[in-house]
Amino acid sequence: MIKIQRISIKMVSSTVSVDSFDTQNSKSRARESEHLANMFGGYGILPLVALNTISPFTINIPQSELNYLENSLRFSRLGGVTYESKTERNQTLGVSHTWVQETREYWLNNFDWRHEEEHINSFPQFTAPVQDVSATENYTIHFTALFSKNESAVPLIFLHGWPGSFLEFLPIISLLRDKYPPEELPYHVIVPSMPGYAFSSHPPLDKEFRLENVARIFDTLMIDLGFGSGYIAQGGDVGSGVARIMGAEHESCKAVHLNLNLMNEPKSYNASSITSAEKDGLARASEFPRTVAAYALLQATRPSTISTVLNSNPLALMTYLGEKFLAWVDKPLPIDTILTDISLYWFTQTITTSLYPYPQVFTPGNISPHDDPKWHLNKPFGLSWFPKEIAPIPRAWAETTGDLVFYRMHDEGGHFAALEEPQALLQDVEDFVQRVWV
What we know:
By secondary structure, this protein is an alpha/beta fold. Helices cover about 40% and strands about 15% of the residues. It has helices at about 25-40, 65-75, 85, 95-110, 115-120, 170-180, 210-225, 240-250, 275-290, 295-300, 305-310, 315-325, 335-350, 355-360, 395-400, 415-420, 420-435; strands at about 55, 125-130, 135-145, 155-160, 185-190, 230-235, 255-260, 375-385, 400-410. It has a nine-stranded mixed β-sheet, with helices on both faces. Helix 7 crosses helix 8 and helix 10 packs across helix 11. About 45% of the residues are buried. Keywords: Hydrolase.
């Protein structure tokens, strides 16, 4: 088993004198960093190397946008009841008329964006200028983070997917804040918004934007933050593909942990090792192309059409995204959690810029990153298995895609593991780090 040597990262703390910096700008940034650290209980301290480039970020959606949402939602036409919308059948025919009607009323009359915004802003947030060095494009990447005062802390980057966002990992960050004071936190936790999502820059207009671009951008972000000597990537959904590519193509990414490894059946594997639970998972995975994947094919082949439709009307966006949050989970998520994510897409108008991964991955004839041999992981690789994932695949399959040193099955949990089972996923990540990082 490969072991990764611990590294030491110098952070800017309240014990560092601002007089030690060469420029007035550095002094200002140091004071700003100390202010952030005090605001966020000591977790907002920036790495010294990043002090002059990283900017603090606070979400503040204009009231005019909230008013526009309310008016648009209030005057959106709700279609009549049909056989398909009346018969729920565990969402197999789509969301029910009742759910759409009741959720719209809740969004209008009970949901409090300002309350959710305040909660999100209680976590340190930043923006950073990042260059896609291969394409010479410049991006601004938004991220939330916990920076540890522990000099041996392990840098971790958590990567979300679609229709998720950086919000998926706030429960895990909350657990870490509750569990560790900043002096003892064993990790630097970086949770970026993917390009085209939330408050990060949009993909370019003159060329195809691929997961390889995202992987380069995030690797550069981690290097710019001072973690070029080594970090670990974790991801689900689209983020799982990005994390795999980071591990396969970038030296600084020393290990990869996933909670989705969407792939086809490999040509050769140890079939006798598959457990009964994994067989049930494979039966579920076999249903994905027949009953679930229509959305992915649409987004792969007609992304401009569907994104324009969804961006034009909040009721359409709520119905389309809400269906996924209802159907892809083991247990129901709180309605406020679902609506916060949908509201984020609406306010940032990023449903139109978030679909670029789908032509690469789901166009018929293309293969996913987890199937592509050029992204075989020749470094420590971990996988968490959740039974209600849209396509849970067995250990024997995953072993054909990399150096699988960690595999853990859970009795509960679905596609949005970081939201559904944050304690279980965090424990898996911590145990994986303990196994591969010394």
